[in-house]
């Protein structure tokens, strides 16, 4: 039927997403009793938070890599920040 609950931190991102997908399918089937639905919802919520954090971390790492690959960038000062002469 269902897989035993694992801590999200012990899973790879892809494994966590697959488990989350399985939970959604189980819940959408309408075949789970109320208590099991609640348990799956709690597990799914933890997995969703974990996956969201991993995506945020990955996005930040990519931004750093892109910026370092582009080299230093100079931005023009906006008028309200310009130096008065």
Structure description:
With 85 residues, this protein is mostly helical. Helix 1 packs antiparallel against helix 2. The N and C termini lie far apart (74 Å). The model has no long low-confidence stretch (mean pLDDT 84). It has helices spanning 13-29, 34-70. It is built from two helices and no strands. Helix content is 64%, strand content 0%. It has a single domain (8-81), classed as Exonuclease VII, small subunit (Helix Hairpins, Orthogonal Bundle).
The largest pleated sheet is described as: none
Q: Which structural class do you get from the secondary structure elements? A: mainly alpha
Give the count of helical stretches.
2
Mean pLDDT rating: 84
Helix content: 55-70%
Rounded to an integer in angstroms, the radius of gyration calculated over CA atoms is: 22 Å
Binned strand content: under 5%
Q: At the first level of CATH, what is the class?
A: Mainly Alpha
CATH architecture: Orthogonal Bundle
Q: Write the CATH fold name.
A: Helix Hairpins
Which homologous superfamily in CATH is the superfamily? Exonuclease VII, small subunit
Tally of structural domains: 1
Order of helices and strands: HH
How many strands in all? 0
Poorly predicted spans: none
User: What distance lies between the first and last C-alpha atoms, to the nearest angstrom?
Assistant: 74 Å
Shape: elongated
Question: What are the SSEs and their pairings?
Answer:
Layout: H1 13-29, H2 34-70
Helix pairs in contact: 1-2
Question: Brief description of this entry?
Answer:
With 85 residues, the chain is mostly helical. It contains 2 helices and no strands. It has one domain (8-81): Helix Hairpins.
């Amino acid at each position: 039927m269902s897989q035993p609950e694992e801590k999200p931190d012990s899973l790879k991102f892809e494994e966590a997403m697959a488990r989350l997908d399985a939970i959604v399918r189980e819940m959408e089937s309408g075949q789970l009793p109320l208590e099991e639905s609640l348990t799956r919802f709690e597990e799914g919520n933890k997995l969703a938070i974990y996956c969201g954090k991993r995506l945020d971390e990955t996005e930040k790492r990519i931004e750093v890599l892109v910026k370092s690959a582009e080299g230093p960038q100079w931005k023009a000062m906006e008028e309200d920040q310009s130096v008065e002469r």
